[in-house]
Design brief:
By secondary structure, the protein is an alpha/beta fold. The chain has two domains: 112 residues, no CATH class; 221 residues, von Willebrand factor, type A domain (Rossmann fold), CATH 3.40.50.410. It has eleven helices and 13 strands. Helix 6 runs parallel beside helix 7. The longest helix has 30 residues.
Length: 355
């Protein structure tokens, strides 16, 4: 059984979880209402009147009505969560590219000259970009002084999970090794190349710094020889930005300093990025708070050669919510029709002469 309105039961971020959790509260509310009615009757204190009222109400009927309400609510909640049966699955052929996102996770990406931080904005824009893909194979290279890799896949959620909670504090070596990261991306793309390939391959580089630990031009030459285009997004300012110190809890505790106790300044090396993109036939864009640039990269790639592949499994699941919704409505209708008065008492009242 699948649930169309619940991705997971924990953490409880979906309304369906809270609706399920409210069932005990509904039962408790009905019990408290019954207790309140008993207290009111006790407060009246008029024995003949109490006896007459007790004769008029059927406790089993009242209990049955409460049970019907709770059962109808529970069935309605299950219907809301959209239960689905397996149905059938089929491969969906899509036209796409091979692309590797090379994302800078150096500590300078903590800088807040872009709202929240450069890194948070980069992740948001990358999520949005990947959500718009359909049939492209994507890989991820996260880098600082060294690299972490995720191979090509059409499982976009898995790709996003790889970098979503990653921070510069998780990188084992500091620095900005652009050349190392681009070389790793080239190797990822090389591994899936086949003779007579029909699809283009691209590297999308997001960085805010200047390379201080490798040779980015040599990596770009390697990409150019293989026909791999590099599209670069320069995040930050060529004039430089102070690098903050950010703890694992996300709190900023000061400004980074070098061994001479001077503030560390991160400068964007646009010249190197332009050389890399020109060398491979790609394009360079400068990211700002107002216009980050991922949409421009998508536009620049629109004429690239795409090839069909059995990219993703498409599930055609069958909705089963009506098996729960209609019984819920029936139980509510039954609760409305079912009265609380005893039948014998009602007949006796009709037979008694009016005063």
């Amino acid at each position: 059984m699948y649930w169309g309105h619940i991705d997971s039961l924990w953490p409880p971020t979906h309304l369906g979880f809270w609706l399920v959790a409210a069932v005990p509260l509904l039962i408790l509310g009905l019990a408290l209402a019954a207790h309140w009615r008993r207290r009111v009757l006790e407060a009246i204190g008029h024995v003949p009147q109490l006896r007459r009222m007790a004769e008029s109400v059927s406790l089993p009927r009242r209990t049955a009505r409460s049970v019907l309400v709770v059962a109808a609510y529970g069935l309605a909640v299950v219907a809301y969560m959209r239960p689905q049966s397996e149905g059938k699955a089929e491969w969906a052929k899509k036209q796409g590219l091979d692309m590797v996102f090379v994302v800078d996770f150096s500590k300078s990406m903590y800088a807040r000259d872009i709202p929240r931080s450069r890194l948070d904005k980069a992740k948001d824009e990358l999520n949005h970009f990947i959500d718009g893909l359909d049939g492209d194979r994507v890989g991820i290279v996260a880098f600082a002084g060294t690299v972490k890799q995720f191979p090509l896949t059409t499982d976009y959620n898995a790709a996003k999970m790889f970098y979503q909670d990653l921070t510069p504090n998780d990188m084992p070596v500091g620095g900005t090794a652009i050349g190392k990261a681009v070389s790793a991306a080239v190797r990822i793309l090389q591994r899936v190349r086949r003779p007579g390939r029909e699809r283009d391959q691209v590297i999308i580089l997001l960085t805010d710094g200047e390379d201080n630990a490798s040779n980015p031009i040599a990596a770009a030459k390697m990409a150019a020889k293989l026909g791999i285009k590099i599209y670069a997004l320069g995040i930050g300012s060529p004039s430089g930005e102070l690098v903050p110190i950010v703890g694992d809890d996300g709190a900023e505790t000061g400004t980074a300093k070098n061994k001479d106790h001077k503030p560390v300044v991160s400068r964007l090396d646009e010249k190197t990025l332009l050389t890399m993109t020109d060398m491979t036939g790609g394009a360079y864009f400068h990211a700002t708070a107002a216009s980050f640039g991922m949409a421009k990269i998508a536009k620049a790639m629109k004429d690239l050669k795409r090839a069909a592949t059995k990219a993703r499994i498409r599930h055609h699941r069958i909705e089963e919510f009506h098996w729960f919704l209609w019984p819920a409505l029936f139980l509510l209708l039954l609760e409305l029709v079912l009265g609380e008065r005893r039948q014998t008492f009602a007949r006796r009242v009709r037979q008694e002469p009016s005063l």
